[in-house]
Amino acid sequence: MSVQAAYDKAKAEGRAALVGYLPAGFPSYEGAIEAARTMVEAGCDVIEIGLPYSDPMMDGPTIQDAVHQALVGGVRVADVFRTVEAVAATGVPTLVMTYWNPVDHYGVEAFARDLRSAGGTGLITPDLTPEEAGPWLEAADAHDLDKVFLVALSSTDERIEKITQACRGFVYAASLMGVTGARSALDTGAPRLVERTRESIVRQGLDLPIGLGLGVGNGAQAAEVAGFADGVIVGSAFIRRILDAPDAAAGLAGVRALTAELAEGVRKAK
């Protein structure tokens, strides 16, 4: 199933899609796979696998802690691809979210080839702009991979238009200014950002869903976001359940419970 198909299926069911994020190698190589599979079983429609990077400048402390653990544990790009392969085997579309430097270092064409070979559906690149993405756009098209770029509260209408033109799969709307992390309340500019992005998509005659992330941490917030966005993206809250758990079994139970709460939330939107 493609990412677009997952969003379309959720829409046909009268709800938003639930997208879960977890870094490869956290809490361990096998642990990440098990946690991601648990997220799928409990209701996630799409999974994002993070590629651990030594300088996660846009990530908050929770994701930084998880990424640090993964790197200390020795996770490598090959492990990321193996994680994608294991999660994609569930039938749920699986993307990689990564800073651009590791892709560039690995080789853009080789990365696209190996991601597709692993069953991955695309790449989310938070620090890559469309203007600098030429090699990636070509490689993604050659290997039929989705290209997901971010729009932010600070994006101008002109900027949003350029970003949506370059996207395939969905558009990632970042609802917060600053680094990632669950919040007690969502930024009040989030609905307007999604509205502006949707207006740009319609003007261009495109067919792109909009997923909103950065800050969602519970079912009530998921329901709030599902009221105006096509997808609800959750990352730090899943990681926190694992970090705070006394053991692996408790961590998985926490992930399952949170996924169920979020899945119920995206179905409660009015």
Automatic annotation (TrEMBL):
Pfam families per UniProt: Trp_syntA
Task: Please give the superkingdom of this protein's source.
Answer: Bacteria
Q: In which pathway does it act?
A: Amino-acid biosynthesis; L-tryptophan biosynthesis; L-tryptophan from chorismate: step 5/5
Any GO CC annotation of this UniProt entry? cytosol
The alphabetized UniProt keywords are: Amino-acid biosynthesis, Aromatic amino acid biosynthesis, Lyase, Tryptophan biosynthesis
Give the EC number(s) under which this enzyme is classified.
4.2.1.20
Q: Where are the transmembrane segments?
A: none
Presence of the UniProt keyword Signal in the record:
no
List the Gene Ontology MF annotations in alphabetical order. Answer: tryptophan synthase activity
Under catalytic activity, the entry for this protein gives: (1S,2R)-1-C-(indol-3-yl)glycerol 3-phosphate + L-serine = D-glyceraldehyde 3-phosphate + L-tryptophan + H2O
Record-linked InterPro entries: Aldolase_TIM, RibuloseP-bd_barrel, Trp_synthase_alpha_AS, Trp_synthase_suA
Residues in the active site?
A: 48, 59
Cited PANTHER family: TRYPTOPHAN SYNTHASE ALPHA CHAIN, CHLOROPLASTIC (PTHR43406:SF1), TRYPTOPHAN SYNTHASE, ALPHA CHAIN (PTHR43406)
Family per record: Belongs to the TrpA family.
* Main function: The alpha subunit is responsible for the aldol cleavage of indoleglycerol phosphate to indole and glyceraldehyde 3-phosphate.
Self-association state and partner proteins as the record states: Tetramer of two alpha and two beta chains.
Q: What's this protein's name?
A: Tryptophan synthase alpha chain
- Which species does the entry assign this protein to? Actinomadura rudentiformis
- Species lineage: Bacteria, Bacillati, Actinomycetota, Actinomycetes, Streptosporangiales
